[in-house]
Amino acid sequence: MAAVETGASERRLIRLTRKLSGRLSELRESVCEADGVPLSTDGTCKVCGRSRVPEPEVELERVHDGEPTEQERLQQKFRQRYAALLHERELEAQARAKAAEPVKLPKSRGERASEFLRGGQLVVRGD
Ligand SMILES: [Zn+2]
Question: Which residues neighbour ligand 1 (ion) by CB within 5 Å?
Fold first, then answer.
């Protein structure tokens, strides 16, 4: 089963990507684009003499603006549906348990018949 992406893991991934991207840009800025040689300490290339102009930092697109992502909304809906399902099952189980309680059986024919007798004598005449 695939891992469930949460908002937290998404944020962690973005943080790591930023960090990695930062390291890459550091590395890139220390090497001449044309010659691929390390720049000297003053930022100029020993081969072509060009100096690198540091690029403005690119702001990555924000995933979260306080609003939950589509994935988080779906997960929230799923949790609500699941909780409702559990509640429903709980109620069903309770209903079943109640139904399983011993029920009072109707009186048998013999019991009903003996109500008409007192000391073996018929006291009420039925049709
Ligand atoms: Zn160069």
Answer: 32, 34-35, 45, 47-48
Buried b (16+ CB within 10 A) or exposed e, 69-93: eeeeeebeeeeeeeeeeeeeeeeee
Both 48 and 76 in one domain: the answer is: no
Containing structural domain, residue 76: 68-99
Number of domains in the chain: 2
Residue 47 φ/ψ, nearest 5 degrees: -85, -55
Expressed in angstroms and rounded, the spacing between residue 39 Cα and the centre of ligand 1 is 8
Q: What is the pTM (predicted TM-score) of this model?
A: 0.29
Sequential pLDDT tens for the chain (127 residues): 455 667 888 888 888 888 888 888 888 888 888 888 888 888 888 889 888 766 677 777 766 667 788 888 999 999 999 999 999 999 999 998 888 877 778 888 888 888 888 877 777 665 5
